[in-house]
Write a structure and sequence with these properties.
The structure is a homodimer. With about 325 residues, the first copy, chain A, is an alpha/beta fold. Chain A is built from twelve helices and nine strands.
Chain lengths: ~325, ~325
């Protein structure tokens, strides 16, 4: 166990150095809400979410391995797409991003603006994995998986690493959980900092596959893409590597779920009291804190991003 | 001139130490918008605006002077009210705040929640100075003026002082201007840091008294409270002390004005691209930057606060 953690922590340390000049060291914030609360606002990260931490680590690691791939490829309708596009452009590699047809046009435009080729035509939630394999085979591009990839996990781990550098005495860290990239990285950084730091994953009740996976002890898969305000965590199952870190090695203590009302309320509190323009996914850990679902103590929340659909925000704020 | 500045800078240094344990050292942020831009987001300050810097310095200075006043009094419908209420409660003094009848009920509630007595009945924009004199005479409370007060000016100066500690090479600093408390403090910190730093005040076209004061060389007063989205700068004239710093001693280089459309656009950019939930007043300096009205160079913007009316936010976002 100690060796497992030590080996991953060393990779996180390397990731931290590798990505340093390409990502932002986001600040740690205190609030008027609760003196025990510390926030890691990854909405201020490059591209507006934590995703470039993992994407840059994955893309830069390809080069260190002595490869010069023909390009990189990713499937994403959201923040991972922009992160991979930026990382690829930075090192001068072509990037191909497959984005489902029904994705938010603003995010598609942002991904194209970062220089990536985007294919949307005929891409659906159901066929995207198949299309991905075809494009990889045809072009010889390397996949940057959004969560089931060690380099991505070690990159995402740098957020909690920075938080704990700033606030070494935290008792609890809460982070959202979709595919588990951020949460498994957070767990590595937290448990290597101090075994007693409780690591809590937060997901919407409507997308509770990680909760059920934790309870069952094996990966559980949702029947289809869930409907939730927190559109960044609509993944149907966590990855095998994420499972290994989070549950097989028990580096995550608990998964808690929050309702859609609790997510909406947390987003409103973020906007009105914390003055952070978060996307609903970015407010998941805050939702768990506000609804009393996190353990007591000095608590750090990883607020994953800020790329909100502005119409959704207008509706949420207008009905408060 | 050098002596004038040196004497004020020494007061700012003392203010910085005096208020340290009561206010937050807000971070300096970089953005994806422009590599030359640095932001000082005072929306993350205690109570959601820069105002406690000045209020705490004023209230704590009363005690150092050996006085134990019976209480403090202020007139404000906004952020200064909460700041004075908090500073008074912290040192155990009663606070009386006069708030015009038509003020935002949420801000009135926030001021009461901080322990202040609030009088609203019969208070109007026209009679509030008169009512203030009456209450001061009757109760023997000490006034904390929102801007025309040296302790308040020296307290507000600590925001730019911190920004320049973090970013010593700035060429330009932009700050909003209402009564001139923040802007005159900013000018003291900037010009003492390096004479070549350009200090630019930003106000709405609809409330351009500081602009006209700068042009005329004497204090110009608006005929009535102006109508602008930026409700934090509806003051009709800057104060005599603020005039002295800003224009008589020429520590402010220029006043620029922005239109209501430019303010609305800047607020939307803050929310959607910077992920900062600013109030429109807090977006004034950003509006000047985005519309190309600031000098070129490495630019720091003081974003004064985040206490937005959420209905206004919903409306602005819904019409973007």
């Amino acid at each position: 166990m100690r060796e497992y953690l030590a080996q991953h922590v060393e990779q996180v340390r390397l990731a931290s150095g590798r990505i340093r000049e390409h990502v932002r060291r986001t600040p740690t914030l205190t609030t008027d809400l609760d003196p025990n609360l510390r926030l890691k606002p990854e909405c201020f990260q490059v591209t507006g979410s934590f995703k470039p931490r993992g994407a840059f680590n994955a893309v830069l690691s390809l080069f260190e391995a002595g490869e010069r791939p023909k390009g990189v490829i990713a499937v994403s309708s959201g923040n991972h797409a922009q992160a991979v596009a930026l990382a690829a452009a930075t090192v001068g590699l072509p990037a191909l991003i497959l984005i489902p047809e029904d994705a938010n046009p603003a995010k598609v435009a942002a991904t194209r603006a970062l220089g990536a080729e985007v294919i949307q035509e005929g891409i659906t939630f159901a066929n995207r994995e198949q299309r991905l394999r075809e494009e990889m085979a045809e072009r010889g591009f390397v996949l940057v998986h959004p969560f089931n990839d060690w380099n991505v996990i070690h990159g995402q781990a740098t957020a909690a690493r920075e938080l704990l550098e700033d606030e070494p005495d935290l008792d609890v860290i809460g982070a959202p959980c979709g595919g588990g990239g951020l949460l498994s990285g957070t767990a590595i950084s937290a448990k290597s900092h101090r075994a007693g730091v409780k690591v809590i994953g937060v997901e919407p009740e409507a997308a509770d596959d990680a909760y059920r996976t934790w309870k069952a002890g094996s990966i559980q898969t949702l029947p289809g893409s869930p409907k939730t305000l927190a559109d960044g965590v609509r993944t149907t199952a966590i990855g095998a590597r994420n499972f290994e870190v989070m549950f097989a090695n028990r580096l995550v203590d608990e998964i808690v779920t929050v309702t859609e009302d609790e997510i909406a309320n947390a987003a409103r509190v973020a906007w009105s009291r914390l003055h952070l323009a978060l996307e609903p996914t970015g407010a998941l850990a805050l939702a768990a804190h506000l609804s009393g679902k996190l353990p007591k103590g000095r608590t750090g929340l990883i607020l994953s991003g800020g790329n909100a659909n502005l119409q959704t925000v207008a509706t949420l704020l207008g009905t408060s």
